[in-house]
Specification:
Layout: H1 26-77, E1 81-87, E2 91-97, E3 114-115, E4 118-119, E5 121-125, E6 129-136, E7 142-145, E8 155-161, E9 166-171, E10 177-181
Antiparallel strand pairs: 1-2, 1-7, 2-5, 3-4, 6-8, 8-9, 9-10
């Protein structure tokens, strides 16, 4: 006689069924959906703020790099290099000019900003970063690097994001260029409104 590996230990009457509800109630579903909505909303706000902050820093670093280039070009060529900032209703720009275009550099006009015959104009539009102010000693919106030791007119270039955060590119008389946030104590006083 063969024995089965499975033995019947009782009848169906001995098996107790637990009275279970399968599925979720409407209140449980609404609670989970509202928690997901709150988390998604906070992540979205943080994400937009982070993107805005990255754009502001990126634009400040672009200007920093271009100013470093202008300073090195003045030292290399032995000619003063001027950087002019302009804006119109839709965008803003800056351009470099050597001694042949110094004083005539307007980045809104083609071929007015050149260094050794090469056009040097940089435009910013629709990146949600505005030029709040560019002011330098001796003029309103033109920075000049001298070929002697790379010295410059001291001043600052203020950038403003759509979230009203501000960052500055600061130039000292010795030609030192640095970036700072408006909240930092070493940063100059930010402008109240667009003054360019």
């Amino acid at each position: 006689m063969t024995t089965s590996r499975f033995t019947k230990t009782g009848s169906i009457n001995n098996i107790s069924f637990i009275n279970r509800h399968f599925g979720y109630s409407l209140i449980e579903l609404l609670l989970v959906i509202s928690i997901i909505a709150i988390i998604t909303g906070s992540i979205t706000l943080t994400f937009h703020s982070t993107i805005d902050n990255c754009r502001l820093r990126s634009t400040a670093h672009d200007i920093y790099s271009h100013l470093q280039f202008a300073r090195h070009e003045a030292l290399r060529s032995g000619k003063p290099i001027s950087i002019s900032f302009n804006q119109n209703s839709q965008n803003w720009c800056y351009g470099f000019g050597d001694d042949q275009t110094a004083g005539n550099c307007n980045c809104l006009e083609s071929q007015s900003c050149t260094v050794d015959g090469i056009e040097k104009r940089y435009f910013y539009s629709n990146n949600n970063i505005n030029l709040a102010q560019a002011s330098f000693s001796g003029s309103d919106d033109t920075l000049i690097f001298s070929p002697e030791n790379g010295t410059a007119r001291n001043g600052s270039i203020w950038l403003r994001s759509v979230k009203e955060e501000m960052m500055a590119v600061v130039i000292s008389r010795l030609g030192r260029i640095r970036i700072c946030k408006a909240e930092e104590s070493s940063c100059p006083t930010p402008p109240e409104s667009t003054n360019l």
